[in-house]
Amino acid sequence: MYRYAFLLLCLGVxxxxxxxxxxxxxxxxxxxxxxxxILGNVVYSQDWIEKMQDPNSNFxxxxxxxxxxxxxxxxxxxKGYAVFKRWESVVEPRVYPSGDVSLxxxxxxxxxxxxxxxxxxxxxxxxxxxxxxxxPFGFSGSYSHGNGSSMNAGRINFVRFHPNNNNNIWVGAPxxxxxxxxxxxxxxxxxxxxxxxxxxxxxxxxxxxPQILYLATGDADGNHTPGKGVLKSYDSGLTWxxxxxxxxGSLVSNKISRILxxxxxPQIVLVFSQLGIFRSTNGxxxxxxxxxxxxxxxxxxxGDSNTIYACGPSQFFKSVNNGLSWTTVNLPLNGIQRxxxxxxPANPSGIYLLASGMDSGFKGIMRSVNExxxxxxxxxxxxxxxxxxxxxxxxxxxxxxLAIAVNPNNFSEVIVxxxxxxxxxxxxxxxxxxxxxxGGQISQxxxxxxxxxxxxxxxxxxxxxxxxxxxxxxxxxxxGINWFGLNSNLxxxxxxxxxxxxxxxxxxxxxxxxxxxxxxxxxxxxNNIDDGDGMDCLIDWNxxxxxxxxxxxxxxYRFFYGAIQLISDPPGGTWISPIHQDPVNSNVIYAGGxxxxxxxxxxxxxxxxxxSWQVLGAPFPPSENIIEFDISPSxxxxxxxxxxxxxxxxxxxxxxFTSCTSPxxxxxxxxxxxxxxxxNVVFVTYSGYSANNKVFxxxxxxVTWINLSNGLPNxxxxxxVYQKNPDGGDRIYIGTDHGGLFYLDNSLNDWVxxxxxxxxxxxxxxxxxxxxxxxxxxxxxxxAWESDxxx
Length: 791
What we know:
The protein has six helices and 57 strands.
C-alpha cells in the first residue's frame, strides 16, 4: 500500500516539476528515477506467486494474475511458468467452480471419514486387487541425462542423516512419501504408503534417541499437496502416530517447511510453517503458536539451542530464549521475495542468507558474523538463480526451489542451489558454476545433475561429500566434480498419463512431471525418451514402433522406430492436451486441449515435417478448452467431449457437435469413456469435493444419466477405464485421490474397493492390457503399478 501511495506522491511532484524552470531538471530526473524503480516493482511484481502460497486464496484470482503477468511475454525456462502450470493442473479440477483453494484440504479428511463410516481402521487396505510397483525406478551411477539409459526418479524435497550413522539416509518426496537407505543411498525402502497423506516436506530426527522421528506432511515447495500436520514415529519410521499438531479445521492447509529438535532437551520441538512457529515442550503431544506469520526456514545457532534463527519470505527473526519470543532483525537488502539460510559449526556466530528478488531471481547473499545482529551484503551478481550457465539471465523460480549450504568445517565454502548449483570459496563474494541442468549446452566441462535444487546437505563427517535433492532425485559428489545419482529403486515419479501396446504386453509409455516421457519393454528397465514435462501419449495399436507423446501445452513428438521427431502441433494447447488414436483406423489420431477438436490423418508418414492437423468442430461451449474426449470403439463416428461446463457429442467424426445433458455442474468433469459395444452407453467421472457427484452413466447417449456415486469417498475421481466384454455387460474401474481404486459391473450393487497393495497417492490414469489380463495405473507420486483384473 505504501509503495503505491509513494508512487502517487512522486507523480504529483513530477507534475509540479514540469512547470518549474530548467534549473530544476536535476530534481525532476531524480524523481523520475525513483518513480521508475517503484513503478518497475509494480509492473513486474508477480503477486500470483504470493497467491499460490495462500491457503485461503481464490484459484481464479491467482490464475488471472498469472495470465496478466505473462501476457505478451515469451515463455522462458526457469521463470516460474512451468511451476504455476503444474500447480494449475492439480488445483483447477479440484476447486472448480468456486476456485476456493481451501477445498484442497478436504481430501484426506473426507477419505478418513469414509473409512470411519464404513467402520474401517485408518490403516485399512482392501483385500481385492494385487497391486505391485512396476517403476520407473531411478537410475543410479554417473549421471548423463537424456542418453536413453538414465532414468530420473522424481522430485525430492529434503535429505537428512542419522546423527550416529551417515550411511543411514532419509529423503522425502512431495507425493511419494518418506524413504530410508541404510547403505548410503544404494537402495531404498518406504513405510509411508499407508498414510492418508504421503506427501512430505520435512523430517527431524531426535539427536539423543534417533528412533524418534518427526515428519511434516504435505508439500511446502510444490504447493499442491496439503498436509495433515506433523506425525511422530518411535520406531525409526515403521509406524506413525499423530502429534498435537494434527490438522483439521482452520489449520488443515498449513504448510510446514522446517522442524527443529532441541539437542539438549528433545522434548522441545519447534515447527516452522505458513501459520507461524509452533513450540512443544512435551515431545509433540501439544503445541503452542509462539509466533504467528509465514516462516520458510530456521536453524539453531551451532552449539547453543537457546539461540534460534528463522526467516519468513522477506524477514529475518531471532530468538535468544529457545523460541519463546522473537525479534525482527533489519536486513541490508529489500525487495526480497524469499529467504533461505545456512549456518556452520566452523563459525558458530555466522549466518548466511540467500535472498531472491521479486522476479524470483538472485537478489543477493548476506552474511552475519555476530549471531545475526547485523548483516553485510556479500554479493548481488551474477544471477545464481537463473537457468543460464553464466548467470547472465534475468529472473528465476525461487518460489519453487531455493537452497543454500555451508561446509561444516569451512565457513567460507558456500553452495547455492536454484536451477543450477554454484560454489563460493570466499564467503559468498565470488561464485563458480558447480553443476548445470543441461550438460550438452556448455563446453566448460561443468558436471550435470537434474535441474531445480530443493535441498543441499554436507554429509556429516565427510568434508567434501555433498548430497543434493532435486526434481530428478538425489545426487552425490565426493569431490565436487563427479556426481552420481542415488535413485536406484526410488519409485516416486509423478505421472500424468500412461499408454500400453496392444501387441507387446510389457511395453509402457509414461509422461512425468519434470522428468519427461519414459518407456519400458520389460517392466524392469526404463529409458528416458525425452525431457521436460511428459504429458499424454499413445502407442500405435497397429504398430508398436510408432509412438506419439506430448510435452507441456500440447507440443507433440513422435518416437518413430527409436528416433525422436518433432511433428507439427495444432495451435494453442492446455498444459495437458489429450491425444487419442482412432480405435478402427490406426492412421487417424485426435487432439484435444484446444477449443476445437483436431484430427491428424497421416501421423505415420515417413517425413515428420509432413504430419498435418485439420480443425474439426468446436464442442460446447466454444469459449472453453477440451478437457478430455473419447471415441466409440464400435462406431468411431461417435465422439464424446468434456469441457468445464458441458458434455458434447458428435455423430460425424467430430465435424459437428450437439450438447448433451450435464449430470452435475457443481464440480469439473475429469474423464469420459464409451462402451466397446454400444456408442450410447457412456460413463463420465468428476473431480472435486461434491459428495455423491463422482460417477454417472448414460444409456441413451447423454440424454439422461444414472448416478453411480453411492458408496464412494468424497474425493476427486481422476480417471476411468472400461473393460471390454465380448459377452456384454459393463465393467469399469475408477482411480481417485488417496489411492482409492474401485470396480463396478452390472452384477454388483456396490463398488468394490480394488486397491490392495496400492499406496495412498492420487491415481491419474488407468489402462488395461488384455493379453495378460492386467490393469495398470499411473500414480502422481509413486510411479506405475499393475494388478490382475477383477475377474
